[in-house]
Specification:
two-stranded antiparallel sheet, two-stranded parallel ribbon, 66% helix, elongated
Amino acid sequence: MARSIRDIEKIWSNVEGVRKLSDRAVAVGPFGVGMDGLLTWIPWVGDVYTVGAGGWLMVQAMRAQATPRTLLKMAAYLASDTATAMVPFGGAVVDTLWPAHAMAARALQKDIEATHWVEDDEDEAKASGAHAEHIEAGRQAGKTRVVYLGKG
């Protein structure tokens, strides 16, 4: 689990790197191809990359305490990517063009951006009365939820 806002920032940044590497390593205008699309043409190698990068994204989502909705959305994108890769030839074409890793990564990044992060313990914040202040600070900042990174 992330324990600091710096940890959250690192997760966001690392997810951005995988997003670009997987689905936009080579970009021409609005179109891009990444390692996922290139490796899908090599038997087993593409599958290993697809599952490995997808699993890594899911671990990062759990570290960032993503919402269940975000986790489900990410899982759906990644499962569809894995499923299309199973179809001979046509699946490789779809996998090359379907930016599932980018969509899953962006879903996680949006979740992170919508969260007001607090480096305190939730129980202590509630006991001290600071919890209401954190909720209000999040609301004022346009955040949809508050997540405590402390020991609680």
